Fold this sequence. Notes:
The structure holds two protein chains of two kinds.
Chain A lengths: L8 H12 L8 H18 L15 H8 L1
Chain B lengths: L11 H10 L4 H19 L2 E4 L1 H16 L11 E5 L26 H8 L3 E6 L33 H8 L5 E6 L5 H7 L2 E4 L19 E6 L2 H11 L29 E4 L1 H5 L6 H16 L3 E4 L5 H26 L6 H8 L6 H22 L5 E5 L25 H5 L3 E8 L5 E8 L4 H15 L15
Parallel strand pairs in B: 2-3, 2-4, 7-8, 7-9
Antiparallel strand pairs in B: 1-3, 4-6, 5-6, 5-10, 9-11, 10-11
Helix pairs in contact in B: 2-3, 5-6, 7-14, 10-11, 10-12
Amino acid sequence: MSTGDDTGVEREFDMLMAKAGANVPADRKAGVVAGYKDMKAMAKLLRQPRTATDEPSNTYDLTSFLRSRS
Amino acid sequence: MTAAKPLHELSIAEAGRQLRAGTLTSVTLTQHALSRIAALDPLLHAFVLITKERALADADRADRELKSGIDKGPMHGIPYALKDIYATAGIRTTCHSKLLIDNVPSEDCVVETRFKAGGAVLLGKLATHEFAIGGPSLDLPFPPARNPWNLDHFTGGSSSGSGAAVAAGLVRTAMGSDTGGSIRGPAFYCGTVGIKPTYGLVSRRGVFPLSYALDHCGPLTWTVEDAALTMQVIAGYDALDPASAAVPIPDFAAALGPDLAGLKLAYPRSFFATQDGISAEVVASLDAAVQQLTRLGATVNEVVLPDIDLFNACGRIILAAEAYAIHEKDLLARPLDYARYTYQRIMVGATISAADLTQAFRLRRELSTLVNAKVLGTHDAIITANGLTPAPRFDEFPADAPLKMMLHTMPFNVTGNPTLAIPTGFSRGGLPLGMQIVGRAFDEPTVFRIGAAYEAAAGWIHKRPSLELPVAV
């Protein structure tokens, strides 16, 4: 997610919708843009000092894996 | 001599004892529930489908089985209901959406197969926020459920019908789902118990997904014991649910008792008490509940948790990204078939980058480690707030989807810990208040023990909604 200033947010949003292939209904757009601004603020919070080894857990149950292949 | 309880106030255990003693039949219990639904649901809109014929057939079968000595466990002959995102073979399952209005699944979800195997009686399918995320919405095929404590007020969501139906005594146990608080929110607003089990303990297979990483299935009930007994029927490993945990299933009700001697509880008061907009009544209710837990024998220590904004950012980024991935095709092709709130909440997921999602999953691990190793490494459970204000009025909701929900529930979807919602009293306006009891992973018995001891001592369980309030226009 890019971090443009507030004045560029709607243009940035339009670009992302175009990339997604979405034609957002005009009367619903304000609510989605407001949500986008909220997501931008939250995405900033995610970026804190963290080590490269700090990775998500990706543990799977072997039985599930084997059965799903059968 | 005390008067006999009305049938709808019998707990699962009480009804079960009478069924086995031959002083009550499942058909009588079921007919009573169906009559109550017929009388009250036109006000509450908790059900989107009532399966009357199926219910009576299930009940008749249960009576014959119990009479012949076949006992399928604690829910045998007991009515239940399912949020309408749980697939039921041959029974319409709509997710409260125009998109699935004619959807009749060919297979049951795993939870339904477990209820069937346990001899329980399906009363019907319950209202939800569309796809477990929109709402409260008026632009859907069915109206939103209403709060039995005051019909002008919100039930919480997305398990809206489940909360309303249990609070109104239409059913003892109703399945909900919880991705960011959708069991615990309705439990708080409607004054019921609700358990979000440990991630992976109850199969999600056949339940319409909202976020693979955060979805949990669990029941809303009137009592803690009923939650434990329902869990006994529905919990268990499912090799075909990729998140299912292969762990032993405990006796969930085994530790229920009157005291909490020896337990050490963490109370992160600053985690919620300093939040903008929190009701002073909520804080006072939590403080009083903690004092009650201390009187029951627990040791309570104040602790500090990371800022709630971190948990919310982590959970909401994951939820939005995964929900968008699930709904992408229909959002692009049929945007106006979604309700306004649903569309606005899910569509924002299209703006999330791969880096955002990866950072969220990295933070998730960090937060989970902190809660589990540091706080629950030295305490048996955490006591914290659930809703931050009593249920808002329906007419307070804006035209566009609100960004902030006044709940403190997302942290434990992020960490996956078992979390029990339980009432802690009432606001001056007569609306329920409550708390969350958060346990170690797969330690539901301790969470139920704390909840049941508090419930018995506090006595809120004896106050039920009067259902005499007028319906708002």
